[in-house]
Amino acid sequence: MSSHKVRIDAPRLLNAKNGTREMRPEEDGHAREADVKGEGEGEGDDDGVEDEDEDEDGDGEGDDGKRVSKRTLPTLHHHAQRSVTLANKASFSKSCIQTIQNQRFQSFTPPSPESLGKAVPARHYRRSIKWGRRLLYVTALTGTLYILDSQLYASSLTRSLRTFGLGIVVALDYKLNFRPEPFFGGDLASLHRRNAEKLFELLHQNGGLYLKIGQAIAMQSAVLPPEFQKMFARMFDDAPQNTWVDVENVIREEFGKSPEEVFGISFSNEPGKGVMEKKARASASVAQVHWARLADGREVAIKVQKREIEQQVGWDLWSFKVVMKVYTWYFNLPFYSLVPYITERLMLETDFVNEANNAEAMANLVAGEPRLRGRVYIPKVYREFSSKRIMTAEWIEGIRLWDKDTLTARWLGGSGKGSPGVNGDPLPPPRISTCENDGTGHLKPDRDEWKGRSGKGGLGLSLQQIMTTMIDLFSAQMFLWGLVHCDPHPGNIFIRRQVDGRPELVLIDHGLYVYMKPAFRRQYCQFWKAIMTFDNATINKITSAWGVKAPDLFASATLMRPYEGGDSSTRGRVTSELKGKTVAERHFEVQERMRQGIRDVLSEEENFPRELLFIGRNMRIVQGNNQFLGSPVNRIKMTGWWASRSLVDDMGLGWRERWGNAWRHLLFRFVLLSSDIVFWGSRIRQVLGWGGGMEDELERQMRYIAKDQFGVELQHAVFEG
């Protein structure tokens, strides 16, 4: 009888040492049961036990001599299986513990370099992504700031950054190259030229109030290097116009209504309504002027501030202050002490309520002065159509001062007639309806019948009378009233012909004024009298009170001619210092002397009258106007006469002092006779063609002294204002 076979598989768990897989205990039990069942079914009968025919003798005994029954076999199999299971559990626990220990404490053995293959360069993904993100953030932030600045602040931040950047470049250029032999870029003329070009481009690119600042520099640039003078002579070109949309928005912002509602106008030829030109008749740095005719027939000039000015003015003036503060420290020049007063004047110039107040004040002063009444006219201001950014005034039909040919051409307007609107008379209505656009946007009628059929007629006026009226007006402002119009250039002066053939001067644009205190106004009168009579003691006393250490130079600057009554100490000192030096050294020393002169003049900053900055500007422009018209009058004599006479007419003085001034004024008139002799001598030479007018001769003398004695090259612009 063959033995009964029982198949029991060993556990198949994963061993950490040999890398073989061992089954879990529960898997091992199922495997054993499956093997036993499979063998029983395959080798025995249906009951799972082998046939007894293997025992040939049939006695039920095996080879070992023991009988094994069919019921005993399953029991033995069960006990054997249980023993193996217990043994396997113990072995499994030990194996797991050993595996954990091996995984935890067994040292790591790195692979050999040969097994790794060829080296591949690392890719720096993280650093590229990091810098890409930074660039993206910076771009997004810059774009956002630019959009906000351009849409909400009219590019004020961009303009300020542009100003600071150029300011640094110019400062470094002068710091490195302002010397007899510059490090870079050739000579001093090249240094001035390239920086003048940069500054000019900045002012034009920024526009707005920067143009106004540039014009202020241009008015003073005659004492600057010639390169600055040539460049800034272009600062007075017309500024670009704003669109009608911007104009309409400003009107709505100021009045809360449309232009049609505010002025009672119509752009569709509506009966009973006025009309207005959408295209400006003139455009300046701060505002532009539109013509309109109201429903009642009055023709008006509507001055509209450019929309961006309100947002830019604060930033622009702040940038100007910062640059001047840095330059004051960097170049050791006392410029900043003048900045607050200058910025205050510029800020007031953007306030049209202030301009309206100045215009009405000047109109009242002119009307109360018999010597000017009927000779000077100030346009009416219509307050009901005016605000801080809108000013509506009477429209003026006249000839600009620079049109000298039309001023003097023969009058063809008929006897007993004058220019349209003269003396404030209403303008005659147009002969045809002007409600229809002619295709150019112009609706204003042309009132030029006085030119005759040939169109060559003029006002037929005397240039001497025109210039006399001008000097009388501005002298009264300085010496009698203490209220000075500081922008009397030819574009702000109209001339009209009165019925009796005399000229009428119309003064517009009253935004830039200075108010002189009574004490300072009297000092200025005395100073003018002193320089006319060579009273050096009085000159030294007044200039010392103003903090000026070079009285003879200051007197020459005031007269705009060489002052011959001083001790010439400054002139002699400068001349001796320049002897024996090369051209480059002389040029450098002269400009260094100019810097020192500025320090001397402004050394006592608290005493220097800020009003002198703008009063001097007025004087230069008036002199330029006189020279442009051919020097028809003795400007210096007339100005001195008003200075002396104003001390007599000053109602703020006591009667004893006024009587003393009257006696001195009588003596002063005899002194002025010598000035008349010089003037008429120059007029005779001018008529005979032997020379120019008196202003031309004064210019020649000033340029000679400035260049040969002081090394300063004055250009013609200094005498044109």
From TrEMBL:
Belongs to the protein kinase superfamily. ADCK protein kinase family. InterPro entries: ABC1_dom, ADCK1_dom, Kinase-like_dom_sf, Mito_struct-func_regulator. Residues 1-10, 19-40, 439-452 have a biased composition (Basic and acidic residues). Residues 235-541 form the ABC1 atypical kinase-like domain. It comes from Diplocarpon coronariae. This is ABC transporter. Residues 41-62 have a biased composition (Acidic residues). Residues 1-80, 434-453 are annotated as: Disordered. It holds the Pfam family ABC1.
